[in-house]
Amino acid sequence: MHRLSGRLVDRRVLNCILTSNYRTDSIYLPPNDRRTYAAWSEIPENGLSIEKRNALVSYYNSGGYEDITAYLRQYPLAKFDPYAAPKKTEAFWAIANAHQPNEVAPLIDALDQLGNPLAVTIEHVKSVAGESSQITKWLTDPKNSRAIPYRFEACGYIPHRNPDAKKTGGLWTIQGKQQVVYVQKELEGTARNNAVEALRHETTGVTQARMRDGVARREAEAAAMSLERAERAAKEDGGKVLTFRPPSAWAPGPDPIQEVDFS
Description:
Blueprint lengths: L1 E3 L2 E3 L40 H25 L15 H9 L5 H10 L5 E3 H8 L4 H7 L7 H7 L2 E4 L11 E3 L2 E3 L1 E4 L5 H47 L4 E4 L13 E4 L2
Antiparallel strand pairs: 1-2, 3-7, 4-7, 5-6, 8-9
Helix pairs in contact: 3-4
């Protein structure tokens, strides 16, 4: 073990380069891989003539290696972040997508629409994907229940069990339903619980807003029905001016008496 920049670093680390003539089926890469940089060359097998190849080898053996070493040693690295994930190239996605089930891509799209939250449920995914979407149908099919956690893990999420709900298998109560909550796998310890609690609080607020909208909608419908009945009564009485009291959804505070002329 060695200390570097205040950290203990294990020097027994292998940094290797893998090469292959097969782009998509030579190595497995999950979409959330943070360790691998993938590069691919489209140059065909005979793309380099024998003369150019021999000239390149001659350059290497006559000081070329030293030239390359000198260039790399003076290359500016002030903006380089050794802890950042490597860029995900087209070659990376070609490899990663080749090994993913059909459900992973639409699941990733749905999570992107949700803003890649710290915690999420299947119901949230279904709400943005739509009832008629293939991913919603797949998530709803009981025969896929065992595969769902693996699909979420492929997208960077793992199930987080409720430690206080042993009788329900660790499910959380979200919107009045017992559900599995998936959290980003990078979260640890209390951060996972905090993400779930934030999700429950946010979902409760959305539910309450929907309930308020429902009450207002029902009151508006009742007002329309009252107005329709008043109109019918006015026509039967010769089109006189009648009064009615609209619900609070139409007029906050004390309901005023309104006069409507149907003549």
